[in-house]
Amino acid sequence: MSEQSKSGFAFGKENYKLFAIAVVVVTIGYLLMVGGGSDDPNVFNKEELFSTRRITIAPIVVLIGLGLGVYAILKKAKD
C-alpha cells in the first residue's frame, strides 16, 4: 500500500498548503472589492464606486485564487 492509503487523507501536505494559500488570495480579492459606500444617501461618488481596484484588480485576484484552488485540488500528491 502507498503512504496516501495508509494516512487516510485524500490530499498530501502540499495540497493543503496550496489550498490554504488559495483561500487567503480569494479573501484578499473580496476585501479589495469592499467599500465605495457613502454615509449620505444623497451623495453618489462615482470615482470611488467604479474604481480600477474594485472593477479590475479585485476580480482578477479572486480568479487567480480560484485557479490556485483548482490546481491544489487536482495536483497529484508526491509519494
Written description of the protein model:
This protein is mainly alpha-helical. The chain has one domain. The chain contains four helices and no strands. Helix 2 packs antiparallel against helix 4. It starts with a helix and ends in a 5-residue tail after the last helix. 4% of the residues are buried.
Briefly characterize the structure.
The chain has 79 residues and is an all-alpha fold. The chain has helices at residues 3-7, 13-33, 46-49, 52-74.
How are the SSEs ordered, and which strands pair?
Elements: H1 3-7, H2 13-33, H3 46-49, H4 52-74
Helix pairs in contact: 2-4
Radius of gyration over alpha carbons?
Answer: 19 Å
Measured by DSSP, the beta-strand proportion falls in: under 5%
Distance between the termini: 11 Å
The number of E-state strands comes to 0
* Low-pLDDT residue intervals, each spanning 5 or more residues: none
Specify the number of helices.
4
Largest sheet: none
Element order, helices and strands?
HHHH
Mean of residue pLDDT values: 86
Structural class: mainly alpha
Helical fraction equals: 55-70%
The general outline is elongated
Overall domain count = 1
List keywords for this structure.
79 residues, mainly alpha, elongated
